[in-house]
Design goal:
Layout lengths: L3 H13 L4 E5 L2 E4 L5 H13 L8 H19 L8 H9 L3 H12 L3 H19 L4 H7 L5 H12 L3 H6 L13
Antiparallel strand pairs: 1-2
Helix pairs in contact: 3-5, 3-6, 6-8
Length: 180
């Protein structure tokens, strides 16, 4: 689950099956009932019908948790953590960063760093399109050391400078769940 809409779809699926949930968060669900194999299969089918997947594999779950922490951090918090991201991720998930980074790269075919940069780029596009902040303010908000660093990274990903992107009439953003 990478959006509020996903969380709503999961809540709806749980209600349809008569399951009571304590928490439905990005990538995690805590339900009150113990699931029988039959109920688990029904839940799996119901979620698949909404384009979502029930995950049982511990490594796959960790990958989803990593993605969700990144999405939450980049898209849903006002200020990015001022600490090193690897430390932030390790603390948030209570896992060794090297293990998570190796697993993520192996399974996703990209590094955590590239995944973060892709999400930050999409968030920067969003902030440019909204037009409420200038590039300097966006660089500060997104925790870049300088406007030059933001511009350089943005251009590597998009092929455009932030200023050129701002001037485009047809600004293209990618949905959060399609960012690789």
């Amino acid at each position: 689950m990478v959006s509020t809409r996903c969380k709503l779809m999961v809540k709806d699926a749980l209600r349809k099956l008569g399951l009571h949930f304590v928490v439905v968060d990005l990538g995690e669900v805590e339900i009150m009932e113990e699931l029988s194999p039959e109920m688990r299969e029904n839940l799996k089918k119901t979620l698949l019908g909404s384009g979502l997947e029930l995950m049982d594999d511990k490594k796959a779950i960790l990958i989803e948790r990593i993605k969700n922490v990144i999405v939450e951090m980049v898209h849903y918090t006002d200020d990015l953590p001022k600490t090193n991201f690897s430390d932030y991720l390790s603390q948030k998930l209570n896992q060794d960063y090297t293990y998570m980074a190796n697993l993520f790269s192996e399974v996703q075919g990209t590094t955590i760093e590239r995944y973060v940069i892709s999400h930050k780029t999409e968030r920067i596009k969003e902030l440019i399109i909204y037009g409420e902040l200038n590039i300097t303010e966006i660089a500060y908000k997104m925790n870049y050391s300088s406007v030059a660093h933001l511009s350089s990274q943005f251009k590597k990903v998009t092929g455009l400078s932030p200023t050129h992107f701002k001037q485009l009439k047809d600004k293209r953003r990618n949905p959060i769940d399609e960012i690789v």
